[in-house]
Amino acid sequence: MAAPLVHHRHPEFRELFARVQENLRYVFQTSERVVTLVSSGTGAMEACIVNLLSAGDTIITVNGGKFGARWGEIARQYGVPVVELKVPWGEAVQPVRILEALQNHPGVKAVYLTHSETSTGAATDLQAISATVHEHSDALVCVDGITSVGAHELRFDAWGIDACVTGSQKGLMIPPGLAFVALSQKARAAMERATLPRFYFDLRRALAAAETNDTPWTPAIALVAALDLALAHMKEEGMDRIWERHKRLALGLRAGIEALGLRLFSDSPSYAVTPVWLPEGMSWKHFQSALKTENGVTIAGGQGEFTGRIFRIAHLGYFDELDMVAVVAALERALARCGYVVEPGRGVAAVQRTLMVP
Ligand SMILES: *Cc1c(COP(=O)(O)O)cnc(C)c1O
Questions:
Q1: How would CATH label the architecture of 239-355?
Q2: C-alpha triplet 92, 100, 163: angle, nearest 5°
Q3: If 115 and its partner were Cys, which of 148, 271, 273, 346 is the partner (CB 3.0–4.6 Å)?
Q4: Structure confidence at residue 162 as a pLDDT band (50, 70, 90)
């Protein structure tokens, strides 16, 4: 990113962008185009609303956390009626709930889902839900894959996903500023019919420009250069191995968490983030500060009604096994500092037992 910029209308950039576009298809497991936008992930979510729908179209959304709620918030701003399925935080929506909603609301244009609900750490069975939607309706399956792309198995083509978004700062491991949208042929047809207003995020323009490895507006050149490198690393490791690594790290970390006597928040936890109940009566501020200032470890707190009640540990992207050992060692220290009695090494040993290959 610190290298001198190439000019974005110069052949050198087109060469770079061509490679990036090709490798993005691999990451999404699709033969379709993946559009690159200059925005954070939410911009790509908005693009999935304005490009696929018309005013008066009804959609189904799943509100089981902050990000699932966002699909509904965006849609309502554009006059799109929303059938919102409420799911308790930490739980994943079951395919049968989607089926019921489809049966109760025939003619629904699209179902908007969150694969990995970062605010609660719950992962959804996307493959099963996508199959249900396609079996029982003509609705598009649109997915917020912002913390699942590059962490969870996600096969855009094979699972019949119609639109999937992610952002550069999550599984793609580079700074924030780029967002991505993969679109099926069915979604592209819907895009031609959609009448909601759009300009900067008009994916028709982005798709047309992408044909010649170009962008309609000035791209974030330095981020595209960084992405090129990140995608090369991902290709070298391979998506199967990336998914496997995330699963391994998540299970290793969770063994450590449970050995410490802590409880996981979700019974369907994502491989990108582990949500944990804060021990009863412990101050989140005190715990967070003990982790950060004394151990240099940054974790996230809860959101919404779970602020101060849960904490979340990331293992998305550039993480390895010793990071899991280190974070559990830091948890032991911070917990002890906050008055929670732990036998030193108990959590670490459990992580090591899970992750060490004999
Ligand atoms: C981070 C995140 C978003 C929001 O992305 P921004 O880049 O902050 O706009 C949306 N959905 C999920 C699941 C996320 O983790």
A1: Alpha-Beta Complex (3.90)
A2: 60
A3: 148
A4: very high
Contact 198, 51 (CB under 8 A): yes
Taking the CA of residue 45 as reference, the ligand 1 atom at the shortest distance is: 10
CA atoms within a 13 Å half-sphere pointing along the CA-CB vector of 216: 14
This prediction has a pTM of 0.97
Which of 39, 61, 144 to probe ligand 1 with, by most ligand atoms within 8 A of CB?
Answer: 144
Whether 147 lines ligand 1, by a CB cut-off of 6 Å, is: yes
What whole-number distance in Å separates Cα of residue 233 and Cα of residue 162? 27
Q: Residue of the nearest CA to atom 2 in ligand 1?
A: 146
Domain ranges of the chain: 11-237, 239-355
11-237: CATH architecture: 3-Layer(aba) Sandwich (3.40)
Q: Is 253 helix (H, G, I), strand (E, B) or coil?
A: helix
Instruction: Find out whether the beta carbon of 40 lies less than 6 Å from any atom of ligand 1.
Output: yes
Q: Which band of pLDDT confidence, cut at 50, 70 and 90, is reported for residue 267?
A: confident
Strands 300-301, 273-277: pairing kind: unpaired
